[in-house]
Amino acid sequence: MTDSAARTRSGLILVLAGTVVSAASSFIVLLIVAPALGPAGYAQFSVYWAALFMVVAVLFGVQQESTRAVAAAPATDEDDPARGPLTSVLAFALVVAATLLVAVGASSPVWSEALFGPGAGGWGFPLALAVASYALVAATNGILAGSGRWGPFSLLAVIDGALRLALVALALALGLDGTALAWAVAIPFPVSLAIVVLGNRRVIRARAIVAGTPGRLAANTARTLAASVATAILINGFPVFLSLFGRTDAATLGAVILAVTLTRAPILVPLTALQSMLIARLSAVREGRGRLLAAVLGIVAALTGLVAAFVWLWGGPLLARFFGEGFVLSSATLAGLVAAAGALGVLTATGAAALARERHTAFAAGWLAAAVLALALLALLPLPLEARVVIALLAGPLLGAVVHLAVTRDR
Predict the structure, then answer these.
(1) 1: helix, coil or strand?
(2) Statement to judge: residues 245 and 291 lie in one domain
(3) Could you report how far apart the first and last alpha carbons of the chain are, in Å?
(4) Do 28 and 56 belong together in one domain?
(5) pTM flag (> 0.90)
(6) CA distances from 186 to 53, 160, 198, 200, 333 (A)
(7) CA atoms of 127 and 136, how far apart (whole Å)
(8) Tens digit of each residue's pLDDT (9 = 90 or more) over 302-322
(9) Do 92 and 49 sit in the same domain of this protein?
């Protein structure tokens, strides 16, 4: 095995391990909060959680562009005049973070209680801290991914997830109120960032400098953020739109939202975690990009088929056992939702390929086309909710993938 292959394999293992810990921590948080707070309290908490991680999903665009820019930039002397204009990814992220901190924090008294419910007027302040900190987390992750530093990249996710679980569990054990829980969810972002940056400050500082002007970095990031808005709609925020366009009873809506969440996890959690690694690999490798993308799409298809077969055979009984008979959907619906998750996986992979080729407009266009078509089908099709969701989440992402492939195929 070559040194490059060994580093890639080691990085893959580290990223997957970090993803497992982070995802498991988040899942356990939701499991322990629900019975502790009851339906009304959990409703408030879940809205706060969804709002926070929807913004996080949008800011993931900062990480994507940072990864691409750092991976494409040689690690040479920043004072070398031959390099042309240079920009600091961290300086750019600091501007984004400061803007978010002021905008969200200052405006939160106006909307916080209306959004999160009675008694939640102060929840906008931990939300402001969390999203501002995540702008810096995203840039730091991009620097680490773009320079192949998968150890600290994974460590940041592990510390963040484990600390959030510990703080939430402590707040529940002490019987603290919802405001304390909001802070418990937010604090891990700046703390995990500080720990990782202090331990890797030299490499982060050295690789934070990328080619191009601040305006170019801002423009590229803006297009990536536009795509991230669509990503947030299709993934993190989709339950909100299910509620808006559901046209069904509350029990069916709840069952569909749970099924969408559970069927996506086996495919999208690892693929999303590996997205920065994929962007870095596709950016660094000029020849054979098409073969690498085809291999990734083949893996997504194979995994989708396996998970779909599993839920077709055992999905219903497992839902009944762990969540109750009221959450059981047909085998066809569950398998269809897995296929829809696979379509989102395809869109994620083709989007990474578009970014690697610096086709930022096409990257955003693909995701936006997917979101628009999915929401239109969900809202307009005269079908039961289960069928509308499956069709919307299949057709939208596949259209977006076609847009990406049209401009990223090797010529």
Answers:
(1) coil
(2) yes
(3) 31
(4) yes
(5) no
(6) 11, 10, 20, 23, 36
(7) 15
(8) 999 999 999 999 998 988 887
(9) yes
pLDDT at 81 over 70: no
User: Looking at the 3D structure of the chain, how many domains does it have?
Assistant: 2
Contact 263, 74 (CB under 8 A): no
DSSP letters spanning 131-195? HHHHHHHHHHHHHHHHTT-HHHHHHHHHHHHHHHHHHHHHHHHTT--HHHHHHHHHTHHHHHHHH
The first and second tokens of residue 327, run together, are: 């959450």
- What the block records as the tokens of 149 is 């530093």
Contact 374, 393 (CB under 8 A): yes
205, 226: one domain: no
Q: What does the radius of gyration of the chain's CA atoms come to, in whole angstroms?
A: 21
Select from 96, 135, 97, 128 the least CA-distant residue to 110: 128
Question: Which runs of consecutive H residues, i.e. helices, occur in 324-408?
Answer: 331-356, 360-380, 385-408
The residue segments making up the domain with residue 399 are 213-411
Burial label for 179, CB within 10 Å (0-12, 13-18, 19+), is middle
Report the alpha-carbon angle 409-271-225, nearest 5.
70
Do residues 145 and 157 touch, judged by C-beta distance below 8 A?
Answer: no
